Amino acid sequence: EKGGYEHFMLKEIFEQPRSIADSMRGRVRADEAHLQLGGLRNYLDKLADSKRIVIIGCGTSWHAGLVAEYLFEELARINVEVEYASEFRYRNPIIKENDIVIAISQSGETADTLAAIELAKSKGAIIFGVCNVVGSSIARATHAGAYTHAGPEIGVASTKAFTAQVTVLAIMALAAAQRKGTISEELYRQLLIELENIPDKVEEVLQSAAKIKEIAFIFTYARNFIYLGRGLNFPVALEGALKLKEISYIHAEGYPAAEMKHGPIALIDEDMPVVFLATKDSSYDKIVSNIQEVKARKGRVIAIVTAGDTLIPTMVDFVIEIPKTHEMLMPLLSVIPLQLLSYYVAVMRGRNVDQPRNLAKSVTVE
Ligand code: M6R
């Protein structure tokens, strides 16, 4: 059942070209500049008209929510708040009648997320679900939603569910933006074409596996890691750090790169590996100066860069190239090397990758 792979996690990482394509199937038609999300058909106006979206989730699903915050705000100009389900449910959150809540959950069984939905519902919110498991408790508790079609995810560390979530949330944001008229016809078309090209580009990223394995070998016994990114790559930094913690048990922190000088920079020395998400996008120049700050303190830098970048490779210790795409979709590519890096480090440390200690695949108790 592992399809020839040593672990489910590796199989699931390599399945992503397909699971992303499956999550778009029947929904994205770039040639006709057309999108449709069957499950949201009757709610699209409400989504486009909403003044506020609250996104709830836990762990990796919460990270997908942070990516969606950028997407909905930038494309559909809707105010978004992203909340840990566990915090949201124990506050007295302000929910107005036309607020939309989007609950993200791979398993559809996470206790805190389910309880947060019930609370928001009791206050009159409309709830959309983005779940992977059909018929799960969360899918049933929502008013509407769109499934991710990632297929069963067995590894405790979430990989293909994350990219499927981001895919579906991007489609939702694009659909809302088009309905609202906040996106130009040209950008809309461009993003649909870019979306359709993502599976092939993920396939390209996966070809760097051997190189990433070599980097993992060099850093197998690191005691700490820092992951830095800006914009849409900031949630990816958090996700990369979470993956490493979960399966290798190495302490790792993800930060927005600009926050580094507000504290974490004190940690940088020649023993500190720093993973930079440094793709060519609107924050490229800023990231370049953050890399300089780390190198000036002898940090060891692994940079995820856009193919063809000639500057960053001269500055850092290791580079992993990924193909170009539109900035809005970059997390779908930039997360892949981080999944592989954590996987190989964990394997080299002899960890139980698919079932790390102390963790369960779905957290059905609070
Ligand atoms: O099934 P869910 O998406 O609701 O699960 C949420 C988290 O428990 C989950 O993402 C967890 O953080 C993963 N182990 C991350 O790899």
Helical amount: 40-55%
Radius of gyration: 20 Å
Distance separating the two termini: 31 Å
Overall mean pLDDT stands at: 96
What string gives the helices and strands in order? HHEEHEHEHEHEHEHHHEHEEHEEH
What are the distinct ligands in this entry?
5-amino-5-deoxy-1-O-phosphono-D-mannitol
Return residue spans where pLDDT drops below 50 for at least 5 consecutive residues. Answer: none
Number of helical regions: 13
Structural class: alpha/beta
Please state roughly what percent of the residues sit in beta strands, choosing from under 5%, 5-15%, 15-25%, 25-35%, 35-45% or over 45%: 15-25%
- Overall number of strands: 12
Strand order of the largest sheet: 4-3-5-6-7
The 3D shape can be described as globular
Please outline the major beta sheet: 5 strands, parallel
Quick overview of this protein structure:
It is an enzyme of class 2 (transferase). Its EC number is 2.6.1.16. The chain is of the alpha/beta class.
